[in-house]
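Good morning C.,

I know you're traveling, so I'll keep this short. The sequence:
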Amino acid sequence: MQWLSWLLWLQARNREFNGWFRESPLEYYIDGAENEIGEIRKSLAEENHDELELEVGDLLWDTLSLINRLDHEWLINIDHVCTRAVAKFAERMPYNVEWYFEWDMNKRHEIWEKTKKLQKSRGLDENHPLVQKVWDNIKEEIKEKK
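The tokens, ready to paste straight into the viewer:
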């Protein structure tokens, strides 16, 4: 996922050197993401796959820009957002973490809803064994690449 590192590098430079980044209101970034979703819909309807890739890239950039801006304004902490997202989705989709494919759509939905309800009542468990397994897998992949 080297490409994500490159995009984050560009985002850091954008935050540091682009006056537009600092001057634009948050709504600008929200509107940008919404507009790109419309462009994606249009590209899908027209079956224009080349344009679709460009528009998805634009949505990714706009989403990262929104996250970056919220972090810049101290409204969120990007590291905390990412950690919490891993905690949320690792537990809601255990088959992804446990390396098996859950074929039954109803079973997937049942797991998702049951876990979502549990997380809402108790909060996210960033120390859940599935979350730890994600971090262990990431560490292992990094080690293998070296």
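Safe travels,
E.
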